[in-house]
Description:
- The complex is a heterodimer.
- By secondary structure, chain A is mainly α.
- Chain A has 2 domains: about 20-110; about 135-349, MetI-like (MetI-like fold).
- Chain A has helices at about 1-5, 20-45, 50-70, 75-105, 135-165, 170-180, 185-200, 205-230, 235-240, 245-260, 260-275, 280-285, 305-315, 315-349.
- Chain A is extended.
- The two termini of chain A are about 40 Å apart.
- By secondary structure, chain B is mainly alpha-helical.
- Chain B has one domain: MetI-like fold (Orthogonal Bundle), CATH 1.10.3720.10.
- Chains A and B meet through helix 4, helix 5, helix 6, helix 7 and helix 8 of A and helix 1, helix 2, helix 4, helix 5 and helix 6 of B.
Amino acid sequence: MSQVDTTTAAVPIRPWVASRSSQAKGLVAPLMIGIAAYLIVLFTGFAGADGWALLFFLLILAVSFVRSRKLGKTKLINSMFNVVITGGALLAFAPWLSIFYSLVSKGFHGIYLGYFYHDMRVTTPDDELNLGGVGHAIIGSSMMVLIATAITLPLGILSGVYLTEVRGRLTRLVRFVVQSMSGVPSIVAGLFIFTTVVVTTQTFSGFAGSLALSILMLPTVARTAEEVLKLVPEDLRSASYALGARQWRSSLMVVLPTVRSGLTTAAILGVSRVIGETAPLILTAQSISSFKFNPFSGQIASIPMYIFALLQIGTEYSMARAWSGALVLMTIVFLLFVVARRLGGKDKR
Amino acid sequence: MHVVYSLGDRIFRRIVTAGALTSLVILALIGLFLFARGAEIFRDMGLKFITGVNWSTGSEDGTTAAEFSIGPMLVGTIIVSFIALIIALPLSIAGALFIEFYSSQRLKRTLVSLLDLAAAIPSIFFGLWGIQIFSSIAEKWSFLLNSYLGWFPLFSNEMQVFGRSPFVAGLVLAAMITPIITSISREVYSRTPRELVDTCYALGGTRWGAIRTVVMPFGRSGVVGGAMLGLGRALGETVAVYLILNLVFAYNFNILEAQGGNIASLIATRFGEATPYELKGLLAAGFVLFMLTLSVNMIATSVVQRAGKDRS
């Protein structure tokens, strides 16, 4: 066995992989340009982070122009576009990163343990941040979202089953309508529920809010359900037919149970789509500053409306509370995403 | 082939079909109800509902009649959305190309997750971020635009106040619709046949060469569809515009001036104190918005679906 040790194993050469030193060299130039841009910002009329970013971009562009000038026109254009596309991409990602950052940095001031189980009944706009909370809004939002899920999940599954199992004459129409429906403006959904449900029952209610959210949620759930059902192997259906199952038994007892976790993902993605919707709730559920557990009569609180109401008050502490509410909402959306991804991974295996 | 279904199957298929058609029924009901409830306004105002200038409930003694027309708001909706689209589209294409062709596998996976999460940011956050964080930067840019390009009517500003303008609202909406357009474009670009790109490299083409000659033409229709979906989202946005834009009822083509509005924010603003007659006006406005966004979305959907079909 010692023979093996003496033979020199071939070490693969990978000339396309950048070595440490060349990677470091690649970093030095941008770093120096960054410093140069910073100095220019300090001593000239350019100002702020945006001025710095713009200068940085222009300088990099200039440097890469000078560097690849000798390499010919094609290479020159290529390297210029490398810079332009990277810069454009960074600019495209910047707002979301800024939002995530400011949510955390501005939102955490108002968070304390009681924030999750207090309501705003006795809290005035100028009270310190250790008073009041978002508890009532969490309860209200959860109730509305649960009702909306109970309505849309069956409908979404039916429409997914229609598109993948039944495959009737209207397949193309259904797919088209579901997709177009996802573009219904949220305020229009609210207006529709207002003029039908709220006007007839003569009361704003959490239930009306759930109905408005359902309209916005259905396309997401239906589309995800279709995507998930498409992944079911055809063999499974054939096997159940071969065992003598009718279509309805094969669909209900073979196909749907296989994608159970995928359908949960569909519900979760639907929830994360609508939990932050504000506009429809202005017209249907409105808001209230105390706990309420009856979704069928009268106004009810929700996290987005909590934020919206605080924004309109506009005092310093109200703003801080609005950011905290937003942080709570974003955390919920984030957790929903993590769960959805976990479940989605399960089905593929 | 003629299939004979058993009784159980026929019942099953009926139920599923009925369930699948609910979305169609809901869409039809929305259009029908909004039109029916707003019909009185359409009858009273006629074409002036679209072309007129005034939105007033009339004086209380009845000397001037109530008059509702959404002209300025319709124009405002279109202006703000187009500003958003013009800015968001190139950034989204750059973002999509960057994720698909410029980043390593690991970075790509991170960015795609980030993109999904960004597409789920509630629109009220954009309003919050717009008024508290972004407005100071946007005002500075507006000021610069005005001082260098102020001779051009689009960028002129008599009042020299730069916040709360259609321009700022458009920028914030651009940030809002970028994730949607980026993720659709990225998906389309990722379906470019690998061998075509490799052929391009093998012939000595550069990365940009491959993108320009293969990837971009291949993904064009999908990107157009994605852009229109983003446009549809911008047209119907309520809360972000409501929070940022200073709602003024007049035609305003100077995008840097602090006045403007869109239909959705008009509905949100007037809803609370509307008289029954004005409410009908709002429902009629909602109907116009619904038809506008629905047609944009239907065109977008058919473009995207056709783009998907060519590939598969």
